[in-house]
Amino acid sequence: MENTTKGFTRANHVGITVKNLEKSIAFYEALTGTKVSNIDVIGGERMAKTQGLNDTQIKFANLHLDNLNLDILEYVIPESEQASYSNNQISAMHLCFEVDNIDDAMQRLKEIGVEPDGEPIIFEEADGLKSGYGTAVAYFRDPDGTNLEIIAPQGPFKRKNP
Q1: What is the band of 84 on the pLDDT scale with cuts at 50, 70, 90?
Q2: Is there a shared CATH topology between the 13-77 domain and the 95-157 domain?
Q3: What superkingdom heads the lineage (predicted)?
Q4: Which of 22, 96, 117, 119 could be disulfide-bonded to 139 (CB atoms 3.0-4.6 Å)?
Q5: Is residue 29 classed as helix, strand or coil in its secondary structure?
Q6: What are 157-160's contacts with CB under 8 Å, separation 24+?
Q7: For the domain bounded by 95-157, which CATH number is listed?
Q8: How many Å apart are CA 23 and CA 38, to the nearest integer?
Q9: Helix (H, G, I), strand (E, B) or coil at 144
Q10: Given a cut of 70, is residue 1 above it in pLDDT?
Q11: For the whole prediction, is pTM greater than 0.85?
């Protein structure tokens, strides 16, 4: 049988553009308990053209999680502009970290000085769902305002092969 997805069923990484690479490395290493695998710089016209730019220079670090890589990117050329998205805005995205226990994850956020956007909730029938009861979620932001989430999944929110 022919593979019609051409690989679009696998995610490799999420790229997060940041203001200060070193500060963001410290944040994501503290959050995940994982050290970056490398720090490097890429740039020039060839790379710029892949992004519709005339020229670019990007300082970056790669952080490997169990099932996804994070690319932490600081654009030197062209200089980055601050964007701000709330989760309800069209084209806004967020990165969700899967955790085993929402209370332990909330304690971890507190330990590294992160204030969540609100208190965590555990999904119940009153939330309008047909299934997934017992799933717990909370939202927070990184130092540059990137939308992040933690989830302790149940039911259809659980992946078959984590």
Answers
A1: confident
A2: yes
A3: Bacteria
A4: 117
A5: helix
A6: 157/132, 159/98
A7: 3.10.180.10
A8: 15
A9: coil
A10: no
A11: yes
